[in-house]
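Below is how a single chain appears once it has passed through the pipeline. First comes the sequence as given, then the structure the pipeline wrote out for it. We keep one example in the README because the format questions we get most often are answered faster by looking than by reading.
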Amino acid sequence: MRYFKLSENETTLKTEALAGLTTFLTMSYIIFVNPSILKETGMPANAALVATVLVAALSSVLMGVIANLPYALAPGMGINAFFTYTLVITQGISWQVALGATFISGIIFILLTILNVRTLIVIAIPKVLRFSIAAGIGLFIAFIGLKNAGVIVSHPATLVTHGKWSPSVIIFFISLAITIFLVVHKFKIALLVGILVGTLLGIVSGNISLPETIIVAPDFSLFGQFAIKEALTLSMVAPIFSMLMTDLFDSIATFLGVAQAANLLDDEEQPKNISKALFVDAIATTGAGIFGSSAGTTYIESVSGIESGGRTGLTAVVTGILFLPFLFLGNLATVVPSYATAPALVIVGIFMCGQLRYIDFENYEDAIPAFLAIILIPLTYSITQGIVWSFISYTTLKITLGKSDELHPMMYVITLLSGLIIFIEYS
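Resulting structure:
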């Protein structure tokens, strides 16, 4: 344990182990939520669960070993929605090509991290756009949850409307009420409990049938199914760009937030080992494409383990190891229905919309680009649209108002890429 420098960080093996367990319990909902989203692309649910577990386990262990930080990773919320609902369902891209795009974005991330360009991009993008895009993705995720539960349905005249009472809708509201109660009372595994309650109610009501066996051999059928050649086309420029931006904001915001909250800062008040941490985050995205999942990213739930005393990479290693037994529980992915995971999506959406408090809506230079991101992401069912239009509008406003000096040079490059994406998608 000398490798993790426990004594230097004023922690112990017991403290780190308990912190790792806490982080695992807090983020374990992703084991069921991610497969429930990915299976809508046509992926086998049990194989998607195995891929989710592999990404979470291996990338968390790598974070602990390489960066010696108590940050856990797993397939990211928001990115999985983009993968499923934007790329595959809306744009008609096969899940194999979407995995190829994930792998390619991971390789680009690794290069950008090594060249230190990734941090430069984050510095260039105004905070207001980061906040608004996060909020827009939050609304998108919550919308998906409500749709999956049957609370929101399509309508020929109004596009969407409310659904009718059904067993799934009733179970959703019961599970959501319980989840909200637990979240308000700061119960660490509130989302997981909500999923379990929804699943149990589904079983009791007869809507779900249990598999003959719970423990099964891991299904690695998604491993290596990524299609790189098909992803290296002009039509995939926009999806890969959006994936890069979404993952970029997610990981950087998490690193900054967690480091600040845990006081894991260096002498210059910057997050400790940020370069190594970003490198592992990039590996998580690349590995996700190989294993058969949407991109991996660092989880804000890592704060729960840090609050429990975790200070070193041993916390992340313990978290990663705790995911591994679920490799043999792949059949559970076929048991958990979408209406059982829907409350978790709604709550995660609420968490992400918390970024709205940082936006000054009385400053129209910020409010207009921010609003475009917030409204376009859920209404166009596309994270890409929200991202590119917010970039273009922000840069255009600054230039027309004679405030181009407030724009980072990299922002011009990002805006030009956004314009290219719009040209391609609207052609």
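The chain has one domain: 2-426.

See the next section for the split statistics.
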